[in-house]
């Protein structure tokens, strides 16, 4: 028997939820022990609830801006194509250090991370099936003298850490560039390990 796509296991007169806990109690002084099934309140959209608690909403999946696919899954790894800071179809542009500040770049890296999360959710069905953030590669459109690329990409890394805890800790590279596609301020690609 299934409910909400979760398989239930029949035991005596009860249907057992795989995440259930058992409470044993003595009935009417009889030494026979009965098992009472208590279905715990498991949330299957925990990561998205965390996003909401941070005042963030998972966006729709951005359309590819070229001849490529948004994601590719190989076994338990999902590779996400480069994500730029699109909000409702509008691209946030400008060069860090001249057009926008480091703090604005930080926020735009966070938007790139949200777009990457939207893509991986479309690939695997639920963000709760993300097992680990493996690697983040971040690119910052900046002036030649700008040297704080890691602080910009922290916008993405910090968000992953807040959402996934230890599983959000990842390897990373942060690179400065004199231009990015369509004058995007930041670009990000991510490798996720997912449950099989």
3D architecture notes:
This protein is 24% helix and 32% strand. It is α+β, with helices and mostly antiparallel strands. Helix 2 (102-124) packs across helix 3.
What is the secondary structure topology, with strand pairs?
Layout: E1 2-3, E2 6-7, E3 9-11, E4 14-16, E5 21-26, E6 33-38, H1 46-53, E7 71-74, E8 77-80, E9 86-87, E10 90-91, H2 102-124, E11 130-141, H3 149-164, E12 171-177, E13 186-194
Helix pairs in contact: 2-3
What key attributes describe this structure?
single chain; two-stranded antiparallel ribbon; alpha+beta
Helical proportion, percent range = 10-25%
Would you tell me the overall average pLDDT?
A: 85
Q: Within the largest sheet, what's the order of strands?
A: 7-8-13-11-12
Low-confidence segments: 1-43
Summarize the helix and strand pattern as letters. EEEEEEHEEEEHEHEE
What can be said about the biggest beta sheet?
5 strands, mixed
Shape: globular
End-to-end separation: 22 Å
Structural class: alpha+beta
Q: β content, as a range?
A: 25-35%
So how many helices?
3
Oligomer classification: single chain
Work out the number of β strands: 13
Radius of gyration: 22 Å
